Amino acid sequence: MTTGHRTTRQVKIKGDRWNHEERYLPFAKLGTYFENGVSSTEALVKANLDYEYQVDSPEAHYRLPDNEDFRLTVNGPYKAIVRPPVVGKYDSPEWIANVSDRYTLVQNREVAEFIEPLSQKYPVKVAGDLGGGRAVFYVLAGQENVDVGKGEVLNTYILVKDGKDGHYGLSFGLFAVRIKCMNMQMFSKKIMQFYQVRHTESIRDNIEIISNAFTRLADVEQSMLILARTYAGFPIAEKERDSIFESAYPMPKMNKSWTLAESNQNGLSSQMIDKLADYKRTYDVGVDRSLQMQSMAREVHKKFCEENTQVAGTIWSALQAVTELSTWREGSKADSSILFGTRAYEVWNAYEQAKIMVSDYDTGSSILSGS
User: Fold this and answer.
1) Bridge-partner residues for 60, per DSSP?
2) Distance set, CA 251 to CA 11, 33, 183, 237, 354 (Å)
3) Peptide linkage before 77 cis (omega within 30 of 0)
4) Is the pLDDT of residue 241 over 70?
5) What pTM was estimated for this model as a whole?
6) What digits encode the pLDDT tens for the residues 20-79?
7) Which phi and psi angles does 311 have, rounded to 5°?
8) By the 8 A CB rule, do 105 and 53 touch?
9) Pick from 139, 119, 194, 39: which is nearest to 339 by CA?
């Protein structure tokens, strides 16, 4: 796509959008995939996650720009979390984070044993770690072949993620995959983190926590499927459709101070003027990219409606254009991005706009608002 003197890279979509046999579970390549599902403790071993983090105190680890690790003794209640070398996976230790002395380190095995009752009912499909061990995750199979009406069928999945850097602990989330095209359905950021547990001693033996997670899981899953059914039967006009695309792929924001500087360049140094020009070029590329993505979403939406007439022109059809584009457009780290990164936010933003459209209806959206 070319706009004026700027050129943006063409976006290509991977695989046949309506033939799932040409595709795979979008998150399957992020870790070790278990076709038939296993328990969390089995997944721990088979995915090579059964390693133990080390706690260094009172020395703190820091990372130099050249990736060399060095130690510096610090004053204060700090300790360093370090991931050890792992045979066949990591050749050398990795500094994870400096954390407060109040932080309780929960090992991978403890997490796997903690969610074992959950994985007995919902087997693990994928297990892996992120950022060299900064987080460990399990994707568990939920309900299969859930008919949400009008020929739309979903599989649901449970995401269990545990962080080791002190910023977050153990979280439980839900999402779905549309079977026909293997598109990710991320109903909201809150649903992706519907239950959270801080790292404390109680995680090791508190059965009440996992029992609460079970109860909350059932409630949220039901709410998620009610939303899907609502969206599949909710017709919208082009203006509303476009608002979903614009929410998923918004225009970049122009920095106000740069706008002021551009309108009055008198007195600016040549270096500042060059920086202003660079910023403007970056901004213009961002605008082109957003317009391109919105245009592609409209194209995908048109094709989707032609081939899925029962839900044509509904909120669901607009959401599927976004999930198709965000799940399957080619790009680096696409698989991790759709579950944990920018692409996940694109889908969340689209679903958030959809929720606003039906906010006057009783669709179970109280779960999303946290009430």
Assistant:
1) 72
2) 17, 37, 24, 22, 19
3) no
4) yes
5) 0.84
6) 566 788 999 899 999 999 999 999 999 999 999 998 765 655 555 555 655 555 556 778
7) -115, 15
8) yes
9) 139
